Amino acid sequence: MSEAEARKRITDLTEKINYHSDLYYQQNRTEISDQEFDRLMEELVLLEQQFPKLRLPDSPTQRVGGTISKEFKTVQHQYPMLSLGNTYSQEELREFDNRVAKGLEGESYEYFCELKFDGVSISLVYEDGLLTRAVTRGDGVRGDDVTANARTIRSVPLRIRAKGIPTAFEVRGEVFLPKKVFEQLNKEREDIGEETYANARNTASGTLKMQDSSIVAQRKLDCFTYFLLGEENNITTHEQGIKKLESWGFQVSPTYKKCRNIEEVFKYIDHWDSRRHDLALDTDGVVLKVNDLSQQERLGFTAKSPRWAIAFKYKPQNASTRLNGITYQVGRTGAITPVAELEPIFLAGTTVKRASLHNANEIERLDLREGDHVWVEKGGEIIPKVTGVDLSKRKHGARPIQYITKCPECGTKLIRQEGEAAHYCPNEKGCPPQIKGRIEHFIQRKAMDIDSLGERTIDQLYVLGLVKSPADLYDLGKEDIMKLDGFKELSTKNLLSGISESKAAPFESVLFAIGIRYVGKTVAEKLARHFKSMEHLMNATYEQLLEAPEVGEKIAASVVDFFKDKDNRMEVERLKKAGLQFESTHKKPEKVSDVLGGKSFVVSGTFENYERDEIKEVIVAHGGKVLSGVSGKLDYLVAGENMGPAKREKAEQLGIKIISEAEFQKLLKG
Ligand code: IVH
User: Fold this and answer.
1) From the centroid of its chain, how far is CA 93?
2) Ligand 1 center to residue 309 CA distance, Å?
């Protein structure tokens, strides 16, 4: 394909894909099938790889990430990012209002009220309608350039299509993780035996600063915008700015309201006090801004914050209640979670009976004693927290809580690895919640997807001694199921056919389902694609595992350990006999050209524009061959960053051409 042809096709594809994805994400509608959409996307990805310079600034491929930044560039904000003064009290809010009234010398004014979103603030710079820079707040004067990561956020427009927009403007907003996404993420971490994240805000902040934008893309960050800045916006009020943002396609939370005086502001605050808990994201207060921009200018700033705006923060609701005891939960991986059993107490709309204490360190930090009363708090987040001990109620001589030393379920002595916060029950093979947990993990939707099997049925199957491991499920017969409470002819048939249908689940789902520690769904997909079959994966060495994308030392060691275990190998063998999918069906992309015809390549190190697997696919798609080791027959060694010195040395000795990523891309152009 000539460069001119490629330019035209890339422009067409970009427009088409952007049209369909706007339709999908903004209007919940589709006009083409998922497969057709994926096909267009795949074509664009390949063309952009072949002609990287032709990639358009609003290319939809950026939504899925792929850039690895070693360190973020520090850049200066055009307008400093100030913070807001804040208060928890109505009196102070009235005082703020008095200061505004005085500053405006009797002129009338209005407030524009918004919720205070609990996320990470961001500055988005647009030039000629294109998102050119996204920067974190940093110290307010300078922040980190996180543009590649921000581009993966679906609600951040890459290009503004509206007519008559200013040549340059800046938008401020809050990047956040929706509560549901946060819960899901924590569930996934639990699935692979990782510690869960404490709250959505810190997780959003950590995600925005991740170095691999393709992982950021998977995290599903979201963004609400609340400020329009610039010299040519033609607006006289904050409200007009907000309306412009809405009409240009930015996401603005519809919770705002214009208030004519401070009494109306109080009403707004009351209105959202409890309702805010039903929103998709955490909020911790209300922000009020003087609406008129010239009035804002007259009021000006203190050293740190504007005199025309303030945040009113909702007090986290708290109460003291008796700690009746601590129970200990055992997870699928054997991790122990201590839970505070509380005297039930009504707090911010719900009755609280239990709260997680996370681990032994937390109990120590709180210095919990037997019979204590504790402070329980419900803030912007919905899960209650134990924040401290109500010392006024502590009994003299109360004994410190002794953390358990044995598993509450099977009595095995607990272990705690150095550097880990959690205690573990090491009795993987015999501890009931671990066994049942593995089966629950195996059947979940992302794994084998046996939805006719629930937690209660698994419990019964376990208690009756019918199922002790996932492979036992495939040996179940009609007479076994009929023994279970509540199972009749039809429900038995459904359950058995659900189990049988699961045999068609793809290899990557099987790989996730067998529950190798640290192998979540994404890693399972990468492993399946890289190793192609269970057989290859089982026999892979630690070093070979490290070569797979997204696999680091921790995962590689865990996979090796898993397959070293005789019982695990036997279980996997039984699953194979049962007829589960043990081979990847991932299709190679179709042949694009033959410019690399007859040439052989070894790929080593990491690349800026490709994942290692991807670059191999590109080679094959262009007629080349990929070899695994350097030998005399090899034509090219494609050297990425951090390539092992041994490979380079060998290639040099054999006089093999070593080429960079850029040189490789030149080869593709023929
Ligand atoms: S306006 C000069 N509006 O709160 C004032 N901020 O302490 C600029 N925030 O850094 C901020 N929701 O990260 C504004 N509706 C909202 C907000 C909001 C959350 C955050 C923002 C800011 C911090 C101020």
Assistant:
1) 37
2) 10
